[in-house]
Amino acid sequence: MQRDCTITDALKRRQSALFLEAGNRGITHKVVHYETGLSLSIIGQYARGETAMGMSAALKIRKAVGAELFSMLLDDGDYLVEASGDIDHDDLASGCLEYAAAHARARHPESPAGVDIDPCEDKELKGHAAKLAAVGG
User: Which residue blocks in 40-88 are alpha helix, DSSP H?
Assistant: First the structure.
């Protein structure tokens, strides 16, 4: 019996979701084409989930869409973050506030799991924590 969900199938679904979200943010297939040099045809195949990206194409696309969107290709709870040598204190403070607000929402009695942290909330909090780790060094 054939498995319904192979690693390649999962990657193709995540690729489709990535390109859909990229389009929602104004990063069109043409933008990806101009920034990566990949053909519009292959980008369309990736976006429709017809072809799984190889590492070379994935690294080019990562530069075009940014770390946050590219993280959609990773396992739940894993995030790619930009690391820099300098600490931007404004970015760090903003990230702390975003984490604190997400934590307060997760602990609110009317949140999905009440005062406990639901798995979907845990994923969001881990994403904020990963960004803080990258910004804070």
Answer: 40-47, 55-65, 67-70
Residue-wise pLDDT for 26-42, tens only, equals 999 999 999 999 999 99
CA dihedral 102, 95, 27, 51 (to 10 degrees): -70
When pLDDT is cut at 50, 70 and 90, the band that residue 86 belongs to is confident
Q: Residue count of the chain, please give it.
A: 137
pTM as predicted:
0.61
First to last CA, the chain: 48
**How many beta carbons lie within 10 A of that of residue 22, not counting itself?**
22
Contacts 24+ apart (CB under 8 A), 55-59: none
Dihedral (CA of 53, 76, 63, 55) sign: negative
Rounded distance between C-alpha atoms, residue 70 and residue 68, angstroms: 6
